[in-house]
Hints:
The complex is a heterodimer.
Chain A: E1 4-16, H1 27-47, E2 54-66, E3 70-75, H2 81-88, E4 96-102, E5 105-108, H3 121-131, H4 136-150, H5 165-177, E6 183-187, H6 195-210, E7 214-218, H7 222-228, E8 231-236, E9 239-245, H8 246-257, E10 275-276, E11 280-283, E12 291-293, E13 298-306, E14 313-321, E15 326-333, H9 334-337, E16 345-353, E17 361-371, E18 379-381, E19 385-390
Parallel strand pairs in A: 3-7, 3-8, 5-6, 6-7, 12-19
Antiparallel strand pairs in A: 1-2, 1-4, 8-9, 10-13, 11-13, 13-16, 14-15, 14-17, 17-18, 17-19
Chain B: E1 15-18, H1 29-34, H2 36-53, H3 59-79, H4 89-116, H5 118-123, H6 130-156, H7 168-192, H8 196-209, H9 217-226, H10 238-251, H11 259-289
Helix pairs in contact in B: 2-6, 3-4, 3-6, 4-6, 4-7, 4-8, 4-10, 6-7, 7-10, 7-11, 10-11
Amino acid sequence: MSAGAIRARDLGKEYRIGSRRANYKTIRETVVDLAAAPYRRMMRRGKGASSDDKVWALKDVSFDVNAGEVVGVIGRNGAGKSTLLKILSRITEPTTGFAEIHGRVGSLLEVGTGFHEELTGRENLFLNGAILGMKRAEILRKFDEIVAFAEIDRFIDTPVKHYSTGMYLRLAFSVAAHLEPEILLVDEVLAVGDVTFQKKCLGKMEDVAKLGRTVLLVSHNMAAVRSLCTRGLVLDAGGLAVSGDIGSCVETYFKMIGAFQESPDPGIDRSGSAGFEKVTIFGKTSNAANTIQQSEPCEVSTVFRVARETSGFQLVCIVEDMQGRVVFRISHDSQSLGLSLESSQEYELRLGFPPLWLNAGLYSLHFRAFIWGDRSSPRYDSDKVPLDVAGGHSEVDSILHPEASWMMAPLRESAVQ
Amino acid sequence: MSAVPVPAIRHEVPIIHIRPSRGWASLRLDEVWAYRELLYFLIWRDVKLRYKQTALGAAWAILQPLMTMVVFTIFFGRLANIGSDGLPYPVFSYAGLLAWTFFADGLNKSSQSLVASSNLVRKIYFPRLVIPGASVFSGLVDFGVAFVFLFGLMAFYRIPPTISVFAFPLFLLLLVCLTLGVGLWLSALNVEYRDIRYVVPFFVQLWLFVTPVIYPASKVSAKLAEMGLPAWIYGLNPMAGVVEGFRWSLLGRGPRPGSMLLVSALVAMTLLITGAFYFRRMERTFADVV
């Protein structure tokens, strides 16, 4: 069954910006405006409507989401993700286009909306539940479950102003996590709380997805998006850039934000004399370039060209995660490769790796070379290529996900017969 | 054919249409009804916070009209000797203040309500009517407390309630409708024009002077008759009808409000209906502006 859950056509939202007019008006401005309106209309007749102080936060966005799909909405800040979610959750109206939603919608644009410092956890739980659209009976039924999930049983009758930030967020998310609409719209809520709780939230979201509910998730946490979503929508500058399978969407996004951008350092195109050519990564079993299983050996290959007379060079291979942290950095020099160096030489470079056991997700790989014997010892960087690792995924923030063999046996014979 | 009945649990899946709306929107009162529990919780929150954050709690509900009554009695009742339709001035003014306090508090709170709840408006969808609605209705709790005190005052001055007390719910309903009507106008205007925040206290103060709280309406109608104007003209201030209705139904004395009340009721209903439509029209931009 794949009935349509969301159908959006040409959705657009125009906002008024600019210093000439604030968002809200004062009566004086309105009076002045009214007086000036006929004159302004006359002035505009020739030029057409002015659009100097308007901006399209979203423009001509069309897509379909089937029931049961978990769709990740990704894009840079200001790309229109939140505007899209606000339109779909009916908080604001689109300026153009329309959307059709089949089913009840629960939206979670923020956790703890409507929480009040002076009220106790219990009171806030009921209030927040009602604000999110739960019925009183439903809240009563799930009360124990919500409190248990938030791990705040002892403090349920304490005003939330005495809560730690963690407790506050746990309670807030817990209420939201127990919403049961057919369609759930979620914005960035996974960015809250400590890592352990984030993991718990991810687990809860996975459960939601497994129940066959439709989820639209906006997040900057690409690892979470990749593990939860099946499809993606990439927004850029208010428009829909790509829609499709989540892996390619995440890759597009990273390309967009410059994670794989061509290096600014002198590279292959520097007079064509020296540097690296295209880098490719192949797993032993996979046939798609730059995609490997975490448990398989892989091979990285490229072509390196040395132009000038040199006594040797050093090669470095660097793998970084998407936060820019170095996962590893290994180097090798030309002497130990046993090369006889001549000028204008092209070399084929191959690196064989054992299974790397990287946590599933996206990484980037690039080469760097230092040429010896030169006054300036120039550095050459290859382009960064994506390294897409498939397989088991553990905690949000970990780098490795090795397979271990777990064994356990009692140390002594049990006393029980 | 099959022995096993197919359970027909699959309920109707609602289809939500999202598109830009133009012109005057319908009130969609069914939706407000669907969100009645939220209305209830917001009222409950307002009341709870009011009694939690203040040291005197429920006492405020009585103190405010009571202290006003004392000042009015000394200055207007005794010193200025304004007259009170033959009723003891304290009871006379308190009955009026009972209605007035609800009205003035309701306007002050509801006009600020949308801006004060901007975090809700920007993050969650629900019929926005619920917010000023909750501010107005939460005043009913204070009203209830102050109302009980009126009976103490009536017992003290030996004024027994008469059969007309059964008409009281109608006047209360009129008061609530009027407060809601004006509150809707002010709250929607306040989102668009932030001047309203400064205008409201001043506006409420002026309104008090044209309402027969301090003085009896009979004095005004007498003057109107001298000028050859019909008495119902005073009813164009809808609070005039409400306050006079309160006195007549609760204290059982004074003139029965007739044509004046009818005019007040018409004005109140007009304010409520136009207020609700204006609110709905402005509603779609609240989240962008607030």
